[in-house]
Amino acid sequence: MLCNGSLEMCLFFFVAWVLYASQVAAVLDIKVPDGALVAQYGKDVVLNCSFSASSAVNISDLSIIWQLADTKKIVHRFVLGQDDLGSQSESFVGRTQLFPGRMSTGDVSLLLQNVQIEDEGVFTCFASYEDYGSASLQLLVGASYSKPHIMAKPASNLRPGDEVTMTCLSHGGYPEAVVLWLDGRGNNLTTLSSTSQVANEKGLFMVHSVLRVSVEANSSYTCRVKNEALGEETHSSFNITGPQVTFPPVALWVTISLAVCLVGLLIALAYVCRKKIAESCKEGPPAAEEAQEVEEDETKTAMKPLNS
Ligand SMILES: *[C@@H]1O[C@H](CO)[C@@H](O)[C@H](O)[C@H]1NC(C)=O
Ligand SMILES: *[C@@H]1O[C@H](CO)[C@@H](O)[C@H](O)[C@H]1NC(C)=O
Ligand SMILES: *[C@@H]1O[C@H](CO)[C@@H](O)[C@H](O)[C@H]1NC(C)=O
Ligand SMILES: *[C@@H]1O[C@H](CO)[C@@H](O)[C@H](O)[C@H]1NC(C)=O
Ligand SMILES: *[C@@H]1O[C@H](CO)[C@@H](O)[C@H](O)[C@H]1NC(C)=O
């Protein structure tokens, strides 16, 4: 045997054999797209794979296997001109299709429908036609995040300097989002926030980010949720406008002073009025006294004859 020496020797021969075998056997030059393929969650994607055929391919002589690189699960199998789906992995049942119309040109691409998060991974395309060969491609999955919803606590009667907790919620995305908080002037407030992302049973993330700030008048707080895999961004702002920030201190003092002035004025007015009323009352009694005197005089006069 070649391999009765050391373990290293064995390993060396094994590696050499693999390299040799792959060069000899892989004469079917299989082409797949360069770089990772990004598919939208829930949509369909075509995993391109082809070999160059010198003449029209006789499909009866063609076999294709699409397989997951790590688990070796069968995604789709086509043997000598016919689908052979007995060994297909359960998670792909009813979601895969080859393109028989294109096979005669060596196109063995796979249509994968209703892409799921767990489809993410490396797919290997094997083709056998006279010779055989294989190539692998990476599938990434992206799902769009919903427009964030911002809740503030407390939400009303805010005064400048009040501590406010803002919560930004966005859901249904994949992969994990990059969350940023900015104020109206573009300042980065992200370090003041804390973000958690939890996946649901479908693998889609729910973003929950909390920002604590002391608010300023006429300010706005924006929560940005970025999906870098899809090159997407969605955002919402919470605006704190003039009327919402009630009574800035200056206005409050102006209002109080005005109120004090008004009350003072009213008191003064009331005093003056009372005095005036009192004066007019004093003018009344003298007339009455005169009348009484006249009456008394008359009585006296009336009594005079009796006296005399
Ligand atoms: C896949 O193949 C189709 C048809 O040949 C082509 O239109 C498309 O651009 C290819 N896609 C990629 C990602 O290479
Ligand atoms: C295709 O191959 C099958 C089986 O090898 C053979 O019977 C058939 O005649 C071939 N068809 C053509 C068009 O060459
Ligand atoms: C904001 O700050 C965060 C963390 O401090 C950083 O990762 C991010 O790149 C910054 N973004 C911008 C737009 O300045
Ligand atoms: C906040 O203001 C921005 C720009 O001024 C505007 O685009 C956004 O719709 C406002 N948001 C709310 C909730 O009013
Ligand atoms: C806030 O905005 C309102 C209306 O745009 C403006 O009248 C007010 O002066 C602003 N207040 C501050 C403190 O900037």
Description of the structure:
It comes from Erpetoichthys calabaricus. It is found in: Membrane. It holds the Pfam family C2-set_3. The protein starts with 6 loop residues before the first helix and ends with a helix. 27% of the residues lie in helices and 35% in strands. It is α+β, with helices and mostly antiparallel strands and 308 residues long. The protein has 3 helices and 18 strands. Among the domains are: 116 residues, Sandwich (Immunoglobulin-like), CATH 2.60.40.10; 96 residues, Immunoglobulins (Immunoglobulin-like, Sandwich), CATH 2.60.40.10. The strands form 5 sheets. It has a 6-stranded mixed sheet with strand order 2-11-10-5-6-7, with no helix packed on it. Strands 12-13-16-15 form a 4-stranded antiparallel sheet, with no helix packed on it. Strand 6 and strand 7 form a beta hairpin. One 2-acetamido-2-deoxy-beta-D-glucopyranose binds next to loops.
Brief summary of the model shown:
It is built from three helices and 18 strands. It is an alpha+beta fold and 308 residues long. Among the domains are: 116 residues, Immunoglobulin-like (Sandwich); 96 residues, Immunoglobulin-like (Sandwich).
